Sequence to fold (291 residues):
Amino acid sequence: MIVITGVSGALGGAILDGLRAVEGLEVIGASSSGDGTAVRRADFDRPETLEQAFAGADVLVFVSAGYAEDDVVLARHGAVVQAAAGAGVKHVIYTSLAASGERLSIALAHRWTEERLAEAPFDVTMLRNGIYAEVAAGMALAGAVSAAESGVFAAPFGDGRVSVVARDDLAAVAVRVAAEAWSDVAAGVPRRHAGRTYELEGLGAVGGHDLALALTGALGRPVEYRTVPLGEARRLLAGLEAYQAGHTVSMFSNINAGLLEARHSDLPAFLDAPRSVWDLIEAVVKSGLQG
Ligand SMILES: NC(=O)c1ccc[n+]([C@@H]2O[C@H](COP(=O)([O-])OP(=O)(O)OC[C@H]3O[C@@H](n4cnc5c(N)ncnc54)[C@H](OP(=O)(O)O)[C@@H]3O)[C@@H](O)[C@H]2O)c1
Fold:
């Protein structure tokens, strides 16, 4: 049996749908709320819910738990590792962060979790996910109102770019790896994904000029990119939770420094035809402007 956590989220939900479409698998979704399409409650903030939620799982797809302060995420993820061990799960597949994100502030919790998983008494596969194309589209959308008025998309990227990947492509890789991991466990053969770390970096990189182009298409008026200082961008984030502002500035700094452009990706080993991130960004921006 395969259990997937976080199925009320976009990634976990897509993985659940993908696994349900594979014939011959017993698949159970888990969510912190325990309702909707999920049949089990797995609230990482309530460790007592977890062993029960993972009971009987041969394979656990552990979707990282959202955006929060580091101490909260570490407590959540530590509880998942402990409960998976207690429930006798044989193979855990963790949705981590790609190598290009090593210097992002969110990397701390991901690498800490990878270390805890590596020490645990089950097989592990790290799916080191690249930055979602949907995140880049969100950055374009954040500047859309002002771009519509001024014809300028202002963002603190300098000349930097970020490699991005469609979230549904990451879900498709997770579905394949989980189904194969389960099939190896069931057949009692060596587990091909055990101990493996896959870098699922995007194959296309976008910068300020690319996002201005997407806004040009979506708004039907010329939009040009102009970089702004990080300090100015930080002031505009004042309405966010402190940790969100911190993670966002960290993302901007990394793009600006050119650190988020990937050098290697394992994506082609899993997908014949990754989705076009350009088309996806344009579609998300268009629908965001209509909605
Ligand atoms: N690579 C990237 O660009 C990128 C961007 C954003 C986020 N991420 C990471 O990837 C994960 C999945 O992304 P997404 O797009 O699906 O995010 P999302 O739609 O915002 O969903 C948030 C996720 O966090 C989970 N979560 C929050 N609180 C939880 C709790 N107390 N216990 C268990 N799970 C909890 C949710 O699960 P339930 O509510 O179903 O329990 C859901 O899976 C995120 O949680 C985040 O760690 C990556």
